[in-house]
Amino acid sequence: MELAFTKEELAFRDEVRAFIDANLPARIRDKLRDGRHLSKEEIVEWTRILHKKGWSVPKWPVEYGGCDWTPIQQYIFSEELAAAPAPEPLPFGYSMVGPVIYTFGNEAQKKRFLPRIADLSDWWCQGFSEPGAGSDLASLKTRAVREGDHYVVNGQKTWTTLAQHADWIFCLVRTDPEAKKQLGISFLLIDMKTPGITVRPIQTIDGGHEINEVFFDDVRVPAENLVGEENRGWDYAKFLLSNERVGIARVGASKARIRRIKELAALERIGEGRVIDDPRFRAKLTEVEIELKALEMTQLRVLASEARNGKGKPNPASSVLKIKGSEIQQAVTELLMDVVGPYALPRAPQEDGWNEPPVGPDWADAVAPSYFNTRKVSIYGGSNEIQKNIIAKAILGL
Amino acid sequence: MDFDLNEEQRLLKESVDRLLLDRYDFEARKRHMSGPEGWSPEIWESFAELGLLALPFSEEDGGFGGGGAEAMLVMESFGRALVVEPYFATVILGGGLMARAASAEQRARVLPGVIEGRTRLAFAHSERQSRYDLADVRATAVRDGEGWKLNGDKTLVLHGDCAQQLIVSARVAGGPRDEGGVGLFLVAADAPGLSRRGYATQDGMRAAEVALRDVRAEALGDPEGAMPIIRQVADEAVAALCAEAVGAMERAHELTIEYLKTRQQFGVHIGAFQALQHRGAEMFVALEQARSMAMLAAMMSRDPDPVERSRAVSGAKVQVDRSGRFIGQSAIQLHGGVGMTMEYAVGHYFKRLSMIEKTFGDIDHHLRLVSEAGGMAL
Question: A4 and B1 in contact by Cβ < 8 A?
Fold first, then answer.
């Protein structure tokens, strides 16, 4: 047993850190540090910087632009991004549809789509959830009927993150309504410019616009945009969701936010002293730090076992990462609420270009929205209750 | 970065587990505890034969040169079986102190007896007022010719009733809680002026109150500079307790899940109920978090940097104690009424976990230490 990184891994970390330091625009870093949303242009800008370096899709196979890094190197890379903080690669293309395309897609699809994901020429979004299909995803109803060399799609998707920026959407659609619910589903790639698609924003409780409803009204999709075989979409979706859970612990992001909390808690006063010195606050902060250190170790153990046993099989221990990781992310936003105190109250619009003077400290306006917004992390990607079902079934055999 | 066992470690774990499987189930444990010592001399002999009593000592001292990982493996297995023999007192504490503080001559005189299973050690350190403050030592040592003379009262000396040699901390100089001026002294348990009162602890183990009245002793190492060694060995001890607790939690969780699969109510096994499934899953999450930190503590417990060492070890103790409390309490709850009975194993795991929590610093104590050290250095 050996805890330390090897000399090569440390050199790699230094290389990544130096690259980020030299190339990450300060404006992007500052927005992320305060928990603000980035614009589409900012995300594209950073992705292009990584792409130029050859680091925009590191975990993909080398032939599609990947880096041939070990799991530990990939871990170091995403930790360094989170620590900066720099935007992590947009997951919809990179972690979700990309691996589905290079694993199950045909040559034409690989050639057409993968390079445009790597440099973010195409912005993808995920069309899985529906109003009646959340945790019970397989009950989805959006229909795709084959007519000649097209599918005609009718239905509605929801919770579609950043669909307002998207060029493409990958969808689970029902192609065989007679089959058992998991068996009649196909995986379809749909151009967002196709007539019949309507995107309607959903405003979340933080006031932000991340998510959307997407309506399909007689949308004609070329049959060549079917991935793999018809009615096998559920298998591809399960593959995709197991990839999604890797990195879901978000250890690096929580670390960066705790460092920020310590800075801010040393600035805010409470009585004669500082918030950081208040024993009750300090104890809560330390408890979260210890949980986070334990989670980091748990994540490294999962990584090490994947490095040893090979990837592919979803590791049910990743449910532990999801549950603990989301709880800690939420606890961190609560701590920041405790630091900001009464200046949580004023509500400032979050749009770019707002230039009224801040009420209270200039970082305060993003704190409450971030707290509100972070309630989502124990809901998405399989709610924490679903994760407990998975542990009970897959690990405990109940 | 590597969490795998090497070949020697795998063999060590296999041999410990085999012994415990053959001779340390819950019924056998009751028999081991029923003897006059409160533990089994035969099992102790088997530990000696397996080399477990030689584990931490250097090869020159006749040992195996085991480190944190080896101690973790043994203690985790002991936790699963709720071993009551004085391994922690003799090997982890006493052995750790002897290995680091004693001269070559002293080691050559004492350690062979320990390794062969004839000599048991105990660490007489805590005092009535000291709680978890390691530097709060008020027993005194004064020069007496070639040796030293000890006076004071020591409390909660783990397995102090069965030890032949006691390692006693005492103050030679400085104020009551000063870091400097504390020494370690070796005393035979039957030395004139030393009296002991042994008693049972809540978890089925033993401890003793020790009174020292003009007891002649020899110093182990620098008689005014023992605190760094005491802190080092205390961190190793906490790491060992963390590993033991993980073993106990793991077994308590297994027993609980087995129970959920067999206990029938309302015509189904109660593990079919989601409220109980989720509690079982939450216990699993708590167990994995504790296991991660016990590994961190094991690997950091010999780190040359005392600040980083203590930070990791204290962080681990907080996590392990919190997980242990949750898992222990939940294991009783999910067993229902039978979990409350002496007859069932699960309650004994709960009790041991609860006592580990109060040994060498509890949650509040270690939380304070981590806070004072500036957090976990994330």
Answer: yes
Cβ neighbours of residue A229 closer than 8 Å, sequence gap 6 or more: none
Q: Give the nearest chain B residue to A256 (CA atoms).
A: B378
Would you say A165 and A192 are in contact if contact means Cβ atoms under 8 Å apart? no
Catalytic: which of A210, A244, A268, A289?
A: A244
- Pick from B277, B288, B290: CB nearest A389: B277
Residues of B in contact with A305 (CB under 8 A): 3
E-state strands within B7-161: 121-124, 140-144, 147-158
Q: Do B277 and A392 touch (CB under 8 A)?
A: yes
Per-residue pLDDT tens listing for chain B (378 residues): 778 889 999 999 999 999 999 999 999 999 999 999 999 999 999 999 999 999 999 999 999 999 999 999 999 999 999 999 999 999 999 999 999 999 999 999 999 999 999 999 999 999 999 999 999 999 999 999 999 999 999 999 999 999 999 999 999 999 999 999 999 999 999 999 999 999 999 999 999 999 999 999 999 999 999 999 999 999 999 999 999 999 999 999 999 999 999 999 999 999 999 999 999 999 999 999 999 999 999 999 999 999 999 999 999 999 999 999 999 999 999 999 999 999 999 999 999 999 999 999 999 999 999 999 999 988
B247 and B132 assigned to the same domain: no
Domain containing B166: what range? 122-224
| Count of all residues that appear for chain B in the document | 378
Q: Indicate whether B233 and B352 sit together in one domain.
A: yes
CATH of the domain at B257: 1.20.140.10
**Rounded-to-integer distance, Cα B23 and Cα B39, Å:** 13
Strands A185-191 and A168-174: antiparallel
Handedness of CA B154, B156, B162, B167 (dihedral sign): negative
From chain B residues 357-376, the ones with a CB under 8 A of any chain A CB are 367-368, 370-371, 375-376
User: Is residue B355 domain-shared with residue B278, that is, in the same domain?
Assistant: yes
Q: In the annotation, is A147 catalytic?
A: no
**Predicted TM-score of the model (pTM):** 0.94
